[in-house]
Structures are given as structure tokens and as C-alpha cells.
User: Fold these one by one.
Assistant:
Number 1:
Amino acid sequence: MFDKLRERFTPEFETAEAHCDGPCGVYDPSSARIAAEAALSMTKKILDLKVPDSSDAKAMAAYLNTMSRYVTIKEEQAHIAKTELLVLWTDYFKPVHLEKFPNLHDTFWKAAKLCSSVKVEVSLEHANELMEAIKEIHGIFWASKDRNVEWYTAS
């Protein structure tokens, strides 16, 4: 079927090449940044949450409810950040980018491992390291497009 369509619309069409697996413009590291920022925010909230007196059942229930919500959001957002980074790494970047960015694979691998750390730990250090790793990826991504897009965060 594809051959018939190709012949109908572009008889001279031989091969097609694309820079990435999707149409240009669909990839952007900002989605990973937003998710990582949410995970960082939840990490801060978890660390700031005060444990109530254990004899106050109502306060303890509220504390446990809030803690479980913060943990759930932190883990979900860290997973989203990881997914966004893996898609960017495997679908956008191509072998040609390794010539310009020889540390590309190591940078992404370390960022993905940080996402895992942020999911399973309550570590402000790792949450901040993840933000720095995504900042580095942001720079690489936009440099691959010969653009200078300013890094910013919501907080």
C-alpha cells in the first residue's frame, strides 16, 4: 500500500530521511525539567513535614495521608522525568550527535539513574543533582539545534 501511495504522490521519491523519530518540534527537555522540579518540590515537602505526637490519632492520620501523597507524587514525577529523558535520548538523538557530544550517552545514563534515586530515596542532594543533569541535557539538546534557549525553573 505504501508503494502505491509513494508512486502516486512522488514518483521520483527514492528514500526519506528524518533527523528524529517524530516530526521536528515534538522533542523538548522541558517536560523532564517540569517533572524533576515537581519531584524536587515533593522531596523538600517531605523533609519539612513535621511528625505529630503519636498519641494524637487525628493528627497522625493527617500526617500519614500527607506523607503518602507527597511520596506518591515524588515517585510518579521522577518516573515521568525518567521516561521523558529516555524518549529524548533514544528517539531524538542520533549517532551523528555523538560526534559533537561525545559524553551524550554517559550524561543521559547518569540522569536516568538519578531519576531512579529520586524515586526510591528522600534525598535533596540527588533531587538537585537531577535538576543539574537535566540542565546539562537542556544545553546539549538546544546546541544540537544550533539554538541558545535559556534554562529556567519555576522556583
Note: The CA atoms of residues 40 and 128 lie 7 Å apart.
Number 2:
Amino acid sequence: MFESIYFSILFCGLFFIILKSRFFQIEGLNKWIFPSVFVFKTLIGFGFVYYFLNFGFKAGQPSDVERFLNEGKELNAVFYRSPKDYFLMLFNIGDQRLLASKHMTNAFLWRSNGLKIINDTRNLIRFHSILNFISFGFNSIILLFFELISIIGLVLLFKGLNKITSIKPFSLLLILVLFPSLLFWSSGILKETLVLLGIGLFINALFYQTKNSKRIIYYLVSCILLFLFKPYILICIIPALLFYCIYILLKKKSILVSTIIFSSLIILLLFGTNIQDKFTSIISIKQSHSKNIAIPGLHVRGDTCLYYFEKKDFNKLRFYNDSLVEIKTKTKALYRARSDKYPSRIIEINPSDEILRVRSKSNGANSYFKTTSINNQFPQLIKNLPSAISNSLFRPYPNENGSFMKYISILEIYFLYIFLIFTILKRPKLNHNEMSIIVSIIIFTLTLFTIIGLISCVSGEIVRYRFPGLLAILIIIFILHKEKK
């Protein structure tokens, strides 16, 4: 009862703020437009949460939505037991492994994401824990705050894009609101909602803001948000900015020359420095982690190493309970020493009396597809590039496993590519600055799609992670559309 009253009061209050605030008042648009969008996105948000709580994952395997909601509450509860430990965990101070063992025993996402300084998964759990002070643990209230963040990001994005396209404001807004990937992923309670705010700030600073002081603040906040919640997007922006800086330094004389210099620098960095080894190692680790989650299996911890057993080998193990296991028959497993980050390798293990502790159990992913393991080999990474980019561009395929949502994604990408081709064929003459922006966006998109394709072996994962790339393609279409308003 209290949740319903609280939700109603807060919803009406936010609706009124959006209706009256100058930030949401845009010339050429009715003042009721954005309040209506807020209502629409809230309904989509409830659908998003309902879908992932009931259909998003295999039976018995909690979705990320459920885990983030629960682990945010679990972290928030630490404050009431030990405020000092809560703030240590909130700001990543002290021995996080010890604190997690003490307070987060049921938090799968928190405990399975290592001790990295910048951990976007833990950062989202931290954000959820802060919202729980306001929401009193009610999921509907948490969703409302995410929808507020989402519509602020949408307005920032709209204002920026409205400056570079001749599409009428209402049509532009309609496209942004109804674009499936943007609508679905930015209406939930995951990282993508905060990513939309970061992208909106970046695009707004790039195309809309005229005051340098405000522009710098927007860029700074945008980078912080992307750094905290999706650092790989920020990494993908760096090559695009590098190209644009080269173009500016050449005094905007030649797109071709700028592209040649940029390509030469990238080749030198990859083949002339140790960045090649570091990049290959990071991608290999991420790819291995993606496969271990996507393929049904069991992660266990021994005294000095970690093992991963596929589901087909479970009959060679003896389970004592949900947390302890023993090897009873000779079997194969993926092995990694606990002191080494990489490489992992397949080994044969003889029966042993050693009791292994279960770290996690995966039921697998519905939309898993086979990919070639990189195994820390740069030549193999290069061989994987064509399939990686192709997977990011076109998956899921109609004949693959997956939920009914895959058909929406299939229609989205093919309609988007058709409109892109149609717009290119009818494009007007572009000036050099517009061309440099388009090339920069293409570099960002290719970098993003390459990284996603190299790592992921799950179509559903690709659909979620590539939405900034699809938005980038949409922005290219907007720039190419130069008919008079």
C-alpha cells in the first residue's frame, strides 16, 4: 500500500517538474510532449523489468536485472550494520575481497568481478544501493529514477542532434523515442540508461552548447559516466577523437590524408609496441569469460587454481552440496592458476580427494553461438576480425535460438541499414567538417563492433552492447539528411 502511494506521489511530482521545467521546453514542440514521453518510457521500463524477471534467462538462472536489484539492496543493508564498511565498499577503499566475504555472501555479480579499480558492474550495484536510501527498497521507485535519468539523456541528445539535421523536430524526437534499441535498453535499470545520459551530454556539448565553460563541464561529466559504467565505450571514442584531432591539425585540408595518417598511427601502435600483447590478453580474458557464462558449466576453486567443467562432464564429479564438489573420474577441465590472470588451458585431471569449492554455476545462454578462441594469440585475433564485425553488424539471425525479442532486433538492424544506404544514395554535397564528423563516427562504430564481436558469443549480449553503435549509425543518417526544414 505504502509503495503505491509513494510511487503515485513521486510519479506525479516528476511529471509536473518535466512539464514546467525550462530544460524540457523546446521551441517547435508542444510542452506536453516530454511529460508524455516520460509516461511512455515508464511503461516500457515496467515491461523491461517484467521481461527479464520472467523470460530473459533460462529457468533457475537469475537475470542481471534481478541480480542488480537484489545486490543493490544487499549492499545498502551494509550501511545499517556497519556505516564504515559501507563507505569503504562504496568508494572502493580497503580489502574489497574481505569486505565482500563479510557482507556480500549472496552477491554473485559483486563477488565474481574481481578487484579491478574501475568495475562497471560494481559501480552499478553501488548506484542501486544509493537509490535504495530514497526508494526504501521498492523496485518501482528505483525504476522511476532511472526513467528520469533516461529522459534527461534523451533531451540532451535531441537538442544536440536537432542542430545538425534538417529533419523536423517532432519527427526527430519520434525516431529517437521509438528506435527499438534506444527505447528498450535505456528504459531499464541497467548500465545502458546511464550510458544514454553520458552520450547525451557528449552529443549536446559537441553540437549544441556555445559556452566553452558549459561545454567542458558536459564533456567532463560525460567521460566520468562512461568511465564508471561503460569504459569500453570511452575507449572506442578515443580513436575517433584521434582522427578528428589529426584532421584539425592539418587545418581541415584533406579527409584522405587524415585517414592515411590515422591508419598509419594505429598500425604502428599495434605492431610496434607492447600494446599488441596487452590488447590480445585483455580480449582473450574477456572472450573466455563470455564463453564460460554462455556454455553450461561449473566454476570451482581449488587451493592453488581455478577449474571450469562443462555440463557434459558433471557425471564425473561428486557433488556434496551446492557449494562443494570432488573429482571422482578422470576428466577434462579449463585450468587457470589463481596467481595468473592468463593463459587458461585445457588439462586432464585425475580423481582426487581434494574438495573444490563452487564459485558459480551457469545454465548457459539461449542465444549462444560458436566462436574461435583467441587463446592469447594475436594472429588468431586478426583472423577473427571479419567474423567479429559481421556478428556485431548482423546477429541475431532468424534461424538462431532466442526469444521473440530477437525478431524486433532483426527488423531494426535491417531497416536501419536500408535507410542508411538509401540516405547515402540521395546524399547532398557535404562540407569537409561534416565529412570529418562522419568518418569519426564510422571509426567509433567499427571499433565498438570489433571489440564486441571479438569478445561475445551470445547474440542477446551483442544486441545489448551494440546499441551505442546503432545510435551512431542513426546519427550519420541524420547528418546526411540535409533537406530544408
Note: Residues 171 and 177 are 10 Å apart (CA to CA).
